[in-house]
Amino acid sequence: MSHPQAIVLAGVLISILTLGVVTVVGSQKEENSTSNTKQFGGHTPGYGTYETTGSVLDPTSLPTDPKNSVVDPMKFLREFNYGRVSHSTNGSTVRDFTIIASDQSTKEISPGVNYNVWTFNNTVPGPTLRATEGDLIRINFINNGSGFHTMHFHGIHPAEMDGVFEGIAPGGKFTYEFVAEPFGVFPYHCHIQPLEEHISHGLYGALIIDPKKPRANADEMVMIMNGYDTDFDTENNFYTVNGIPYYYMHHPIQIEKDKLIRIYLVNMLEFDPLNNFHLHANLFHFYKTGTNLVPDEYTDIVTMNQGERGILEFSYTYPGKYMFHAHKTEFAEKGWMGTFLVTEHNNPVNASRLSNITGVMTNLTNGGLS
Ligand SMILES: [Cu+2]
User: Fold this and answer.
1) Which among 239, 265, 322, 352 has the fewest CB atoms less than 10 Å away?
2) pTM beyond cutoff 0.85
3) 199 membership: H or E segment, kind and range
4) Cα 150 to middle of ligand 1, angstroms
């Protein structure tokens, strides 16, 4: 990776030039010398072909406005949905969640790039559900989409609660009910064929099951790694953590020096065989799948296939701004990168002055990826 800053700068310039011209993403691979317009897509049932007059829209590192976008990554980061709590006759905790699937809205995934997202509760990724080992989880699932969808959870449950063979029709409802076991971090996703279509459009999220004896107090966050194939050629054009490319470059995640940080990390990336997470200037303890209280590894990088996940624990010794990103250069340069801003306890630095584009580009120019 000899000149990442040059590539990012070029990407920004191309993006600025093409913004406002291209409304649907094109592909460099499908040049058409006889026409100014090109067509993409069409292999997805129910979706027509799209025309574009631009030759390419690279991922842009300009800021995305969360108001227009498919998710607010800063809100999503530390938002855990514990459900509506009640108690069964035997005294155990019951957690009711309502999840609504949709597949017809178009939302911004990067500045100027609107994409037909399929969502659980209107965001990509879907909400992070959370329970404690032994709780009864009840998912009141409503399909408001135009096609069949389901919810398939990883974990232990009866066959009829697996969300694979019984598709829920448009307008239909189903209640998934199972005991939360074992403790760990689990993906959930729609399991209707063709699976790659339902996953790549956004139907996934995370379920955290806490051990009965809680883990140590920490600043907890969830990170879901994903991508978007906006020209329907089964290759991703954008890569993100928590739904929006480059978001945490513009909006550093503020954490405190010496504070224990715990990240629930899930890889839901479609089409690419692997993905990974690299932390700068630090190492983390990694708990694969989160099902053991003893760490499997002490490292600065973890690589995952689709559906793999784990828990990262670390703390920073020195204040400052640190990158984290996929150590797969293509993914990082197409949006999967972010920053932590480590501050002294009770002495937070004003993050806004560091979150403008100048700051980001200076950061990249001075250091880039490593
Ligand atoms: Cu689906």
Assistant:
1) 352
2) no
3) helix 195-200
4) 6
